[in-house]
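Bumping with the actual sequence this time:
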Amino acid sequence: MSALESLEQALEEAREGGDLMEALTFDRITAEALDFSELTCRRLSFRTCRFTGCDFSGAAVYACEFTGCQFAECRFPVSYWKTCRLTGCKGDGGDFRRGRFKDCALRECVFRYANFTGTVWERCALAECNLTESALAECKISKTTFQTVDLTGAELFRTPLKGTDLSSCTLDRVSLSETCAELKGAKLHAGQAAVVARILGIEIVP
C-alpha cells in the first residue's frame, strides 16, 4: 500500500469510526481534493507532503506537526488548531477565515495572500514567516509573539495589536484604519514609526 493509499484508508476509517484520526505519520504524500472537513486530528505528523484542493473546513487539529508541507488551493475556514507546529510550510492564498490558533508555533512558513480574516490567535509564536499581502483584518491576538515576520502589504484593519512586539517585523504598506488605532500600545522601532507617520499623512523631515 502506498503512503497516499494509507492516508485515504485512514480517512475512510475515521469517517466510519467517529471522525477521528490520531497517532499517524505520513511522508512525501501528494494528496488532491481530500476531505478533512469537520475531522478531529490528534498527534498526526506530515513531512514533505503536498496538499492540493483539500478541504479542512471546521477541522479540529490537536498536537499535530507539519514539516516542509505545501498547501495549494486548500480551505481551512472555522478550523481549530491547538498545540500544533508548522515548520517550513507554504500555503499561499489559503482560506483560514474565522479559524482559531491556540498555543501553536509557526516557523519559516510562507502564507502570502492568505485570508486570516476574523481569526483568533492565543499564545502562539510566529518566527521568520512571510505573510505578505495577507488578510489579517478583525483578528483577536493575545499573548502571541511575532519575530521577523514579513507583513508587507498585510491588511490589519480592526485588529488590535496592543501589547504585541512588532519591532522585528516588516510593516511596509500595511492597511490600517485612518487613525492607525490598531497599533496603539504595540511595540515598534523608530523606523516603523516613520511607516505609521506616512499612513497618517505626516511628512517627516530629515
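The C-alpha cells above came from a reply further down the thread. Helices lie at 3-16, 190-199.
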